[in-house]
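[step 3/7] fold_predict: job queued, chain A
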Amino acid sequence: MKKKDPRVWGVICVILASMCYGITPILSNTALKGGLPADFLVRVFKKAPAFAVLDPANAMPNESVVGFGMAIACALSFITCLIGRKSLKVTGRQALEMAVFGGGGFTATMLLISYAYLCIPAGTTIVINFTYPLIVALLSAIFFKERLRLPSVLALVIAVFGIALISGVGASGSGALGERPALGIPLALLSGIAYAVYFLAGRHASYNKLDTSAANFWITGSAAVICFVIALASGRFRLPPTGFLRLVLLSSGILGYMIGLRLLLKGIRLLGSAPASALNTLEPVFASAASMLVFGELMTPLKAAGAALVLIGALISILAMRKKPA
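[step 4/7] structure written:
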């Protein structure tokens, strides 16, 4: 009987990871804003539960939201390692690279995204963050001597034009880009750069063959430490003020930083960074749909066209990076 192609499992892993990461922005936004919009709660429950209604007094700082999510994921990964009897032993080089490229890259990505959430809607933020495949192509050409083809350059032009359309929607005051698109859009772009570094590290660093559970433990653990140090140093550390927000952060940690991260790392190993990132462009689709459903984000024609161009550019850049299978 023919053995099933492991790439099939890689595709499934990345699609499920995209779903997890598409839902996580809504959970993060809920903690950042201090609850859920009353109109959304009424649509779901017929009557808005008082404990879940958005209250600015319950809003949590970005560093605390990301830090608690990372800490929860680290704890869950540790439990997973204990149950599966996985060794947490790593070399000095692996520990250093996971702290710098894994924890540092993931922390930078998530913090920048969370800052952008306060300026532009979650769906728009994730779409702009998905310029990262273009950055992956450029960094691969510069640091790993992979050939940069004409389609990659074309993809960059298309994506830049798409971002220009999204930016134009915010400048004209139409759409639902929030109050500070001039700040939110650069933050989202910077998050794409940080994620490209993290993505490539997962493929090329010394810990790329480490057990997924062990890698999760060290990456999310170092990320939690970084976030809490920043939060304490800046006076922005805050415990979740309500039981509802504690549940939200727990769900965010499980979906975004444990399940999603495990699935994505597994998908990268089975498919390679380029095909995995191509499939991962489903993430902004899920994020935009969830943002429209929960927070009432508007999808105007210009904004939809800009988002489509960004995703098309990402897909073209990934196709340009494809290699013949070994």
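[step 5/7] annotate
The two ends are 22 Å apart (CA to CA).
DSSP finds 13 helices and no strands in the chain.
exit 0
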